[in-house]
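[09:14] KT: can someone run the structure on this one? pasting the chain below
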Amino acid sequence: MKNPLQERIVPYRGKDIVVYFHVDRCTHVAECLSGLPEVFNTFQQPWVQPDRAEADRVARVILKCPTGALHFKRLDGGWEEEPPDTNRIIVIPDGPFYVSADASLVSDSGQLLLTDTRLALCRCGASRHSPFCDGMHVLDDFKDGPDCHSEPAGSSKPGRGKLTITVKTGFPYRVSGPVTVEDARNRLLFSGTQVALCSCGKSRKKPFCDGSHRKA
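[09:31] RB: done, structure tokens below
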């Protein structure tokens, strides 16, 4: 996983697996705490203790983290994380975009910032760790509005492939590559290879950009 962004990453090394905690990406979804409390427990020091469960169990729980705050590296020759079969972006109500994809984040100048399979991208425009969600949508009282809008651009779900997300402060996320955009009820909002998604929180046709960032 390439990562030239200035992220704070803390490793927790066990005998068979290393767990990496990307501090600034954590929004306390708590899949890890509920999924494997003997390993992930904020009342213990350190809060991650990989040797308290089999490496396979630790890895499976980490894959449930939608933000990418947790990753792993196997030391026992076991299986590693693979990109999903289909690139999906899930619109969380009044919250971030959950990206599950073979994804690359790039700057508007084309510089590769990050490659990953799981990301939570800010939709409210208030994150202190943009483009990642940091939970500020709660304090900012960010609201979607009545419902998510649709921009159907294809009748079938695209397959597996590389997804590029171009990020620039104050501008929409420009998504290129096969992808579906869905709401939290799995309703298809978009299917295609090119789409602009709102990152400022001002669009009147969320989750898609309508140009409101220019006024914002």
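[09:33] KT: thanks! The mean pLDDT is 91.
[09:34] RB: yep, looked fine to me
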